[in-house]
Structure formats: structure tokens, C-alpha cells
Amino acid sequence: MIRALFIQQQEGQYGCTVATLDEAQLPAAQDGDVTVRVDYSTINYKDGLAITGKSPVVRKFPMVPGIDFAGTVTESHHPRWKAGDQVILNGWGVGENHWGGLAQMARVKGDWLVPLPAGDAALSPREAMAIGTAGYTAMLCVMALENHWALQGALPGDGEVLVTGANGGVGSVAIALLAAMGHTVVASTGRLQEADYLRSLGAADVIDRQTLSQPGKPLQKERWLGVVDAVGSHTLANACASARYGSPVTACGLAQGMDLPASVAPFILRGVTLYGIDSVMAPLARREAAWRRLATDLDRSKLAAMTKEIPLAAAIQAGADVLAGTVRGRLVVNVNA
User: Could you write out the DSSP letters of every residue in 73-122?
Assistant: First the structure.
């Protein structure tokens, strides 16, 4: 028997509870060729949507939510994995179309897994979920910025880098990564009372999100050497409008909205490049590169400072808290507590 968050929808009633399930209820072998004993999961924005039902991200019922997990293989029919291997999963529709990681066991496709970084830069399963999809997405954004800057010849210190949604998981990890690389990071947040926390991660300046979240001019004063945006809508439009000539902007979230009320002006008059960052279906090579970089580049003390651990039962309320924007940094879920 295993404990799991369990989402059901019956007669129009949507509910998420902590349930005790038989392992036989896990996805059938044809739907997953690797069984993993889960050590830790986490709560991302999409998990909040699934747990609360605020958006129809769950495509099948019943469902175990959780787009992430880290754990140990107990049984494998996949050539890349054997019992005892430590693995990470992010995305691939897990927690939406396929039972996910907010459970003590998971059965998934081996092609979806990446190895938990080992060796001199080893990550523990708990650290991997302190990073989670949010931190992995932040690294994908940073890698896209780096590749663009390399073509430009831009160097750390050449200008300010904007991180929006700074108190969230993506924002917190992005600040720590970019600051460690030597960049001057400006954090945009709606919680200015958290300015000391953001500066402790490496932010050089903290600005009120209201400066970016309202409708703005199609072209504005050039400021940003690069942008990591987890917010979307007017915030992303204003970030593009105020990016410096030839600069990269990465978009990975929609906390403010899915719309993009922008013009083509920044792109055709200033050569700004907008990169869409998808973590769900990213190819294996990119995933493995991101996790290797996270293991070597992310300051573990800063990771610890942005992380709070909660038991499985607390994950239901945590899902609502994430959507409300009241969570600082990252939440690790101990599925065995």
C-alpha cells in the first residue's frame, strides 16, 4: 500500500485528498516500464493548478498529481535503468495525463528519466526536489541567455539582467545562478518586504512589479541585457520593450496571464530575441546538461535558504498557497512523512 495525493472528479465535483492506494493501481506496465520508490517531490505552479482545479491541467481522472519526483528504481524493463539507480523526473505530462510524483511510488517510462547527478557534484534526492521543475526551468532560461550572449560577445557586468516573479521558485533559482556568474541582477516582485531575501540570493536591486505589470509603450528606454520572465502578459511585453539592442528575453511562465499585449517594435527595431522555454518536452540532452549545470553551479547554501520541507498532507494547502503567490522560494514534499 502507498500514500498519495489523489484527485477525483465525480458529477462535476473536483477534489484532492490524501489516499491510501494499492500498488496494483499504479499505471499498467505498457504505460510505464520503470517503477520508482519516490523519496521527495515538490510543488510547482502547475501542481497548484492541478491540486486546486483552478485550471484544467489534469486530463484524466482519477489522477495522482506531481510533475516532479526524485527517487530510486525498484524495478525496470528499460535498458537504461536498473534497480538501485537514483533518478529524477520532470514533466512529460506526468501529473496531468500520467500518474505523478506526489506519491510514495511511481511507474513511468524510462525515456522520461534522467540520472540524479553523482560524483564530486552529487545531488541528494532532497536537493534535486528543492530545485525541481522550477529550478530546472530557471537553468534552461540561463542556458538560453548564455548561448545568445556568447554570440553577441556580451560578458557579465555589461548590463543589468531582469528576473520577474523573483520570489517564486524559478525567480529565486535564476537570481542565484545569474549572480554567481557575475551578472548584475534586478529582481521584480510584488512582495517588497522580501527584498532582503532576494538580495541574499544575489539580487543587486529589487523593484516593484507594478513598474512592469501595467500597459506600457511599445518601445521604452533600453535597460536589460537579458530577461528571465515567469510572469507573462504586460510584464513580458514591458520587458521586451525595455530590453537593450540585440538582447535576449526568455519566457517560461504565465503567472500574470497567457496574453502578450506587445508590438513587433522591439524585435524589428532593436533586434530583441524572445525565447520560449519549455521544460515539459525538452529533449534528453538538454535536460541532462541542465541538471549537470545545476549540480555544479547552484550554491547549495542559497538553495537551502530558499527551501522549506513539508509532509505529503500539507501539499494540498501548499498548492493553493503557490497560486496565491504567498510561497517564498521552493517547497520540498517529503512523500514519506
Answer: EEEE-STT--TT-EEEEE-TTBTTTB--SSBSEEEE-GGGEEEPP-GGG-
At residue 182 the predicted structure's pLDDT band, cuts being 50, 70 and 90, is: very high
Cell of residue 114, nine digits: 534522467
Shared domain for 99 and 180, answered yes or no, is: no
Q: Is residue 286 part of a domain?
A: no
Q: How far apart are CA 333 and CA 21, in angstroms?
A: 18
The single-letter code of the amino acid at 13 is Q
Kindly state whether residue 50 falls inside one of the protein's structural domains: yes
Domain span at 16: 2-116+306-334
Domain count for the chain, please give it: 2
Whether pTM > 0.85 for this model: the answer is yes
User: Quick one: cell of 46?
Assistant: 502547475
On whether both 52 and 139 belong to a single domain, the answer is no
